[in-house]
Design goal:
Elements (H helix, E strand, L loop, with lengths): L12 H14 L4 H21 L5 H12 L7 H12 L3
Helix pairs in contact: 1-2
């Protein structure tokens, strides 16, 4: 079994009762099991939403046209951002 870590949190009594009721309805052995399942099931989706960029077809076409434009030079802000990403290992 993998080592487990402790996570403490304070919630309003109403939130605690709600978590206890939902935990019981789902048949979880504890509120910890319930909260762990919520995190395990939802955190990856949340992180995915924050890492993906959705654009329209028109936005994508415009972006690609700019990328293909060999005459266009990157601005100082773009160069600075690229350097920061390089420095951070991206």
């Amino acid at each position: 079994m993998a080592q487990r870590e402790r996570m403490e949190m304070r919630v309003d009594p109403e939130i605690k009762r709600l978590a206890e009721r939902a935990s019981a309805v789902l048949g979880c052995a504890s509120v910890t099991e319930f909260v762990s399942a919520l995190i395990r099931d939802n955190a990856p989706k949340i992180l995915e939403q924050q890492s993906a960029i959705e654009v329209t077809n028109a936005q994508y076409d415009r972006f690609m046209a700019i990328c293909r434009d060999t005459e266009r030079k990157p601005s100082a802000r773009i160069l600075e951002a690229a350097k920061r990403l390089d420095d951070e290992g991206y």
